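Quick start: what a row looks like.
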Amino acid sequence: MANLTIEEIIEATGGELLSDSSVDFSGVSIDSRSISDNEIFFAIRGEKFDGHEFLNNALLQGSGAVVDIRPEKLPEGKAIVCVEDTLKSLQDLAHFIRMRRSIPVIAITGSNGKTTVKEMIHAVLSKRFRTLKNQGNLNNHIGLPLSLMKLEPEDEMIVLEMGMNHSGEIKRLCEIAVPSHGVITNVGTAHIGELGSYKTLRAAKLEILGELGVAVVNTDDDRLMQGIREVSFKGQIITFGIENESHVRASEIRATENGTDFTLELGNAGSIPINLNVHGLFNVYNALAAATVSFSLGVTIDEIKAALDGYSAFPMRFEVIKENGITMINDSYNANPTSMAESIKELVRMGSGTGGRVVAALGDMKELRDFSEEAHREIGRLLSEADVDVFVAVGEMMGLAVEESMKTGMTPEVFSFRDADEAGKEIMNILKQGDTLLIKGSRSMLMEKIIRSIRNVI
């Protein structure tokens, strides 16, 4: 982050200076345990914590703090700024920093693929531009502002993943970051439990359109495209897809041992072969999204190829691991009905014809509420129809998937466990040499424990 003066912090937050200090700040922190000298501490209030309780610890290392409770005793040599709301002030400061720079900001949302698309876009843009991205999944009302704080004078582009659980969240993130370009990967079923309907979910994703100059959208997603047609958007729409007519397309798609090959078609700019080192048709869509927005920003087709050919899987996102005759697909980072179905399809494609069995170790999908029972039963039906040989069900709701799969005459062999720890203890008694194994579930299910159990035994 470029240096910030105390005057700039007050201007951005509308705060009141209680205790003066002449130091400039080179960073922002919300964690008293990791704050560094010359950083300013924001005492954020959360559902289970209050940063004000850690103020004294923060000031031992940091150079100042932004609070919304006036300290009884002001520390010497530290700048203390009092505001009405520390979270809003953090967001306002991030907006202030962003607006000091007139550079493209690319925002990504969607039910699936956000992080992968962000990483791919960053890889492509970095071939030509110095590009800032939010680290990991720091994509919410706290993580995104903290990511923007890291903007340096040399940065030429910003790529930001935007997550949401409720209506209005994407709109607020856009108010902070003011994106110039937006990418909507798809509209699936992630967070439908909180939002209550597909229409509400789609509307929440479309909040990203706002004042965008360019929107990049998946033309093969009928639900998304219907929503696009129903809103009034004044910017430019650029489409990507495989099945339907679009500005950027993938053709000649072929699965390989190491990933997926396809031809990238960029309209008048021509076409070029791409050799992705990641598996799955969904990753072809992710690559198309990255190529589309990057091309619109001036990256050449050759630079796009070089970046996509060099891209490697993000940990726990369809990460293929081969050890001692077992192919493990670690897709344990998260799950919703759409991503679960796509991963099962890719599991079957990868496992068929290998001579081994196709094994799905699936954990509960969370945050579905009223949609949960039917969503899990649908997974059971899919498993029965998709030539899966073994179903390792983890969690209470996956028990419903077991029930549903048993209603058909194509039932896979089933093993049920309470949690990932229990499944991990038995997994090596289930697996055989040559098996292809998918491990997937919601983040709270900690399905990666099964991977650890396998690696400890093998």
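That is the whole record. The longest strand covers residues 248-255. The mean pLDDT is 92.
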